[in-house]
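Input.
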Amino acid sequence: MISRLDSMENLASYTQDTSSEAEAVQRELMAQMQPSQRMALALRLSSEMLRLSKAAIRRRFPQFNEAEVGLKFIELHYGAELAEAVRRSRSNVQS
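Output.
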């Protein structure tokens, strides 16, 4: 049975700043991990991406409170329409 990680070897490089040798090491290390370890790594990376993205919004818009940071995050990542729907929904709950 071929694992999903093995099939990744046939894919083009997924980064522009990582050597093919480093990618091979990363693939090998991931292949040695248990599924729960790979999931934990994915969750940590996702959490870090969210933290960094919101930190960038706070730097760009220092006047924003946490709710406004969250709305800007939604706007940037999911679109203005969804951000506006969330904004309207929040204002209805607060009324």
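The chain has a mean pLDDT of 87.
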